[in-house]
């Protein structure tokens, strides 16, 4: 019975073209964005949808420090942070992250998903009668953390500050409230009106929780994120980030006051009951963060390549969704089946790897490719991507920008 029930759900997923398959890629060390495609073809493919936004996973210093830590400490951490899994590299990494965000303290988790999930659960459980108000497009890790608690929760329309204010005004000024939002939304590439959200939150005596996972490393002074770029760090109570994207390794973290960090360290079950990051991973994260604090090269190259890619896609009438303001360029396909077959053609005919983005990551009817250039992509690769996308869109009669949007594309 149980197998049949699950099989029915899987078949339903497949019939709607929302079933997800893995594309087995073997990245080639030192040659990013090239990767080998599961032995099916001799030539490498070019990856255009990786979260390794700055190519830091390939950086010589990061790799060197990971090798050194492996030979110094061994492979694993040996336990949770409370039982044998805290070591000197952790102290240095958390101090570095706190310094990066101009906060009193930081706390590292094994994943970015875990840092959102565990921290939000903890804060909502430990602050009596706290109401949480969350942006409608917040990441699944945020939604998961909120839903795991019995707290009252409200959702405000995406980036709609007026709607946020209307919701907050319903509650007494003395009742605890937590406003949760992101700086950059990864599926649309847009930026939250952080200053306005913070002003409204503070007016109604609410804590602010900002997810900066798609911004850290790439924006702001020393790459500390959008809040830093806007000089709003001191207005944000909790900043959450990841080390799996621009930092190029893996892990999540929060940065806040000593009291908030200590409360999460002491009460968050998702932190207490999990093994800590291996020393080599921690060393790689630390090396990457320290490099990005002082180097603007990667950020500048990212912006140059993003601008060039945006221009070339526009020239070829590729429908980049107008909401995009950042390095994330969502290319609208608008149909799950065509998104799937277009990805296969791009991969096997043009040597371009783009993963279809379907429901539930995005609403049905807005299926897309989530494209991003990196400092490692060459001008020739950017040109080839634009040409390949245009050929593929024409082949499958996918609507171009001039037919899809009434306003300017990008």
What does this structure look like?
This protein has 410 residues and is α/β, with parallel strands linked by helices. The chain contains 15 helices and 16 strands. It has a 7-stranded mixed beta sheet, sandwiched between helices. It is globular. It starts with a helix and ends in a 6-residue tail after the last helix. The model has no long low-confidence stretch (mean pLDDT 95).
Helices and strands, with pairings:
Elements: H1 2-15, E1 25-27, E2 34-37, E3 45-47, H2 60-73, H3 88-100, E4 105-109, H4 112-126, E5 131-135, H5 140-147, E6 153-156, H6 161-168, E7 177-182, E8 184-185, E9 190-191, H7 194-203, E10 207-211, H8 226-229, E11 238-242, E12 252-256, H9 258-267, H10 269-272, H11 279-294, H12 297-315, E13 329-332, H13 336-350, E14 352-353, E15 356-357, E16 368-371, H14 379-395, H15 401-404
Parallel strand pairs: 3-14, 5-6, 5-7, 7-10, 10-11
Antiparallel strand pairs: 1-2, 2-3, 4-12, 8-9, 11-12, 13-16, 15-16
């Amino acid at each position: 019975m149980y197998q049949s029930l699950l099989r029915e759900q899987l078949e339903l997923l497949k019939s709607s073209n929302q079933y997800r398959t893995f594309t087995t890629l073997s990245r080639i060390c030192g040659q990013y964005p090239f990767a080998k495609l599961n032995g099916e073809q001799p030539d490498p493919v070019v990856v255009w949808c990786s979260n390794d936004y700055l190519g830091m996973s390939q950086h010589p210093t990061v790799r060197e420090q990971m090798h050194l830590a492996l030979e110094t400490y061994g492979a694993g951490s040996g336990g949770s942070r409370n039982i044998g899994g805290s070591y000197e590299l952790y102290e240095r990494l958390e101090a570095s992250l706190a310094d990066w965000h101009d906060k009193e303290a930081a706390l590292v988790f094994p994943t970015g998903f875990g840092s959102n999930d565990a921290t939000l659960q903890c804060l909502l459980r430990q602050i009596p009668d706290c109401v949480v108000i969350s942006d409608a497009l917040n990441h699944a890790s945020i939604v998961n953390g909120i839903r795991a608690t019995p707290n009252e929760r409200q959702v405000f329309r995406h980036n709609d500050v007026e709607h946020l204010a209307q919701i907050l005004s319903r509650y007494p000024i003395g009742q605890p409230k937590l406003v949760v939002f992101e700086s950059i939304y990864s599926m649309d590439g847009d930026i939250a009106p952080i200053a306005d959200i913070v002003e409204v939150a503070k007016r109604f005596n609410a804590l602010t929780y900002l997810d900066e996972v798609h911004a850290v490393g790439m924006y702001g002074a020393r790459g500390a994120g959008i809040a830093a770029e806007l000089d709003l760090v001191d207005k944000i109570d909790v900043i959450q980030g990841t080390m799996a994207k621009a930092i190029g390794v893996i892990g999540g973290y929060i940065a806040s006051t000593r009291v908030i960090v200590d409360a999460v360290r002491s009460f968050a079950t998702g932190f207490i009951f999990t093994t800590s990051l291996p020393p080599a991973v921690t060393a790689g994260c630390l090396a990457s963060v320290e490099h990005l604090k002082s180097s603007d090269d990667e950020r500048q190259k990212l912006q140059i390549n993003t601008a060039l890619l945006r221009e070339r896609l526009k020239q070829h009438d590729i429908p980049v969704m107008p909401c995009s303001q950042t390095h994330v360029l969502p290319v609208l396909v608008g149909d799950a089946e065509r998104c799937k077959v277009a990805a296969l053609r791009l991969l096997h005919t043009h040597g371009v790897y783009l993963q279809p983005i379907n429901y539930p990551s995005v609403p049905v009817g807005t299926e897309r490719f989530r494209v991003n250039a990196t400092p490692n992509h060459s001008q020739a690769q950017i040109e080839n991507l634009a040409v390949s996308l245009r050929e593929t869109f024409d082949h499958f009669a996918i609507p171009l920008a001039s037919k899809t949007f009434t306003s300017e594309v990008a």
